[in-house]
User: What shape does this take?
Amino acid sequence: MSKFGQLLLPSLFGVLVLASWELGVRWADIPPYILPGPVAVLSALIDNFPELAAALWITVQVTLAALVLAAVTGVLFAFALSQSRVVEQMLFPYAVILQVTPIVTVAPFVIIWVDNIFVVLLILAWMAAVFPVISNTLFGLKSVDRNLRDLFRLYGATKTQTSLRLLAPSTLPHFLTGLRIAGGLALIGTVVAEMVAGTSGAQSGLASRLLEASYRLELARALACFVLLGMTGLAIYSALDWLSRRLLRHWHESASDVGYDRH
Amino acid sequence: MERSQAPLLALQRVGHIFDSGTTAVEGIDLSFAEGSFISLVGPSGCGKSTLLRIAAGLMTPSKGDVQRNFDRSPGALGFVFQDPTLMPWATALANVRLPLDISGRSGAQAAAATALARVGLAEFTQAYPRQLSGGMRMRVSIARAIATDPKLLLMDEPFAALDEFTRFKLNDDLLALWQANRWTVVFVTHSVREAVFLSQRVVVMSPRPGRIAADLAINLPAARAPDLRQTHAFADECARVTAALSQVMEPGSHV
Assistant: This one.
């Protein structure tokens, strides 16, 4: 498919949906507290932009901090697990428990134990994001080419040399896969945490604003928050995808277009 | 063919039993004279690869002794696997540099470039493995193994996955490299023609457990050229090895 088609077709579809939504709302005379049209959402976005942008910045800060923390702790944890089969068997179930426990159920405790709301949100978002980093990195560490391992042993490589020259690069694609998933989860985790923690006032993020607006039946403003959060998720995914392609472009199949060419 | 001096590598009564209880090899006595090219042939499951890994020190045999009469510094031993086993994230040059970089030798860049030139890849130093053909990747793998100028070169079916044309070409080039450098080479293969063409000595192994069935000196001139393959003498030597091999094949099995 041509690059033109790749952009044009989804855009055309989007415009069509928005147009029928706007026309439908006007034609059926639906009140804005039930369903505002896209034009009303856009004007709510523009009118409240400084306030929404400030709230978005808080959400983005928590999300990115949680993502970085998840990346660092996830890699360290995976590396520790990969060192010994016993350690892995002992600790991995707890990583799974961390993953399958809905963060909504943990939130009340964290809120009681931690005063700083930023830290509360950070902990909850980190909990949502860290597992895919751990499991993908661990998978990568375990699937290092055995012959290459032997070769490093044969040439008398130190543990540090093996880690830096063999384990790190061969695990990188798997880690980046985990990171791409973690990026989306960090945002979801932040949003859920904000909603559960019930933050309000100047320190509150975009999800709190969304909730606030919906309580007041200001649906246009709530939808504007929704749109901004969606775009943020897309931006985070695109940035991580770009990073991944950039780092792997020379050597990894996932970063090449070769497979998709049709001659 | 054997010289009077101590062999470079000697296996004495070597046997190995895997953790699963399977006996991989048993009662192996083999010595490898310095500068000789020796092939190990035999059906699957005869422990050729196990023996090579024992010789490399990657595995410790459960029985017997391995004597290595050479300086055991890293790089004194080169190993070529059946797969090229290259680091896909590194260029051909960086792959060849690996053993030199690990031991921190100076002049690694130049030595690696020279090794690549010797296998005919002088113009591909900056290529990544996936940009190279299967034969070229194997050349990079060989360049890496010879970059340290090893005393002992162990090769585990290096050309098994290549098409016949590429295989012949690599056989010719490997032979030329060996004739110029005289490393001690232990070469594992399934191909009788390849073994006879390259080697001074062919060791035939029998399966389950791996034992030495025949140890044949190849009566062909030391200086060899590709057209040797068309001679009667070559065909006779191949027939001799094939006969020894068919003795060890289990009834009903086909090669």
Remarks:
- Chain A has ten helices and no strands.
- Chain A touches chain B at residues 145, 147-148, 150-157, 161, 165-166, 169-170, 172, 250-253 (CB under 8 Å).
- Chain A has a mean pLDDT of 90.
- The two ends of chain A are 12 Å apart (CA to CA).
